[in-house]
Design a protein that fits this description.
It is a single chain. The chain is α+β, with helices and mostly antiparallel strands and 148 residues long. The protein has a single domain, classed as 60s Ribosomal Protein L30, Chain: A (2-Layer Sandwich). The protein is built from five helices and four strands. The chain has helices at residues 3-11, 20-29, 39-45, 62-72, 95-109; strands at 50-59, 81-87, 119-124, 136-145. A four-stranded mixed beta sheet has the order 1-4-2-3. Helix 5 links the parallel strand 2 (81-87) and strand 3. The termini are far apart.
């Protein structure tokens, strides 16, 4: 079992390896990320009494994906933590486009009090141009508190 998958299992022993959240965490913290991820964010994300949700968006730009997240899923603003990654439509990442999307997300959130812990993002190159066929993609991993 690769190192990150072992760490996920150690931090959340009841999480099924076949679950969508397990797979997405392995991608986010695994190899291939163009911005190094901090494993301390994993332990924060996998806190006690958490429910998880994965949201996927595709559009003509990363910013369009961010607006879909904010407009179509206002409940995401209630999350305890959000990890997100962008997938380029091809093999070349345009960093200024991702930066613009992150700034747009920050501006949208100024109207809502939030304190995501963790709040992290990274990016991946689309190795298979057929998948997504030119679309910019955003995958958001959300952690919610399910109470007592």
């Amino acid at each position: 079992m690769p190192e990150i998958e072992s760490l996920i299992k150690n931090l959340s022993p009841l999480m099924e390896e076949s679950s969508e959240i397990f797979r997405e965490l392995a991608i986010f913290f695994g190899p291939g990320a163009k911005i190094a991820t901090h494993q301390g964010d994993l332990s924060k994300f996998l806190g006690r009494k958490r429910l998880y949700r994965i949201l996927r968006f595709s559009g003509n730009s990363y910013k369009e994906c961010v607006y879909q997240l904010v407009d179509e899923h206002p409940e995401s603003m209630e999350a305890l933590g959000m990890l997100r990654y962008y997938i380029s439509p091809g093999k070349n990442i345009k960093w200024e486009d991702i930066e613009s999307a992150e700034i747009a997300l920050g501006k949208e959130l100024t109207t809502n009090a939030y304190g995501w812990m963790p709040d992290a993002w990274t990016a991946f190159e689309n190795a298979d141009d057929a998948q997504g066929a030119g679309a910019h993609q955003l995958v958001a991993l959300l952690a919610f508190d399910y109470g007592d």
